[in-house]
Amino acid sequence: MEKKIPLKDEAFLQHPILFVLVLVSALVIMDPLKMGPLGGREYRPVKHSIAPYKQVMESWPRDNQSRLGRLGKLEFVGEVFGPESLEFDNRGCGPYTGLADGRIVRWMGKDVGWETFALVTKNWSEKLCAKGTDSTTTKQWKVEMKCGRPLGLRFDKESGDLYIADAYYGLLVVGPEGGIANPLAAHVDGKPILFANDLDIHSNGSIFFTDTSQRYNRVDHFFILLEGEATGRLLRYDPPTKTTHVVLDGLAFPNGVQISRDQTFLLFTETTNCRLMKYWLEGPKTGLVEAVANLPGFPDNVRINEKGQFWVAIDCCRTPAQEIFSHNPWIRSVYFRLPVRMSFLARLMGMKMYTVISLFNDKGEILEVLEDRNGTVMKLVSEVREVNGKLWIGTVAHNHIATLPYP
Question: Which family is annotated (predicted)?
Answer without folding.
Answer: Belongs to the strictosidine synthase family.
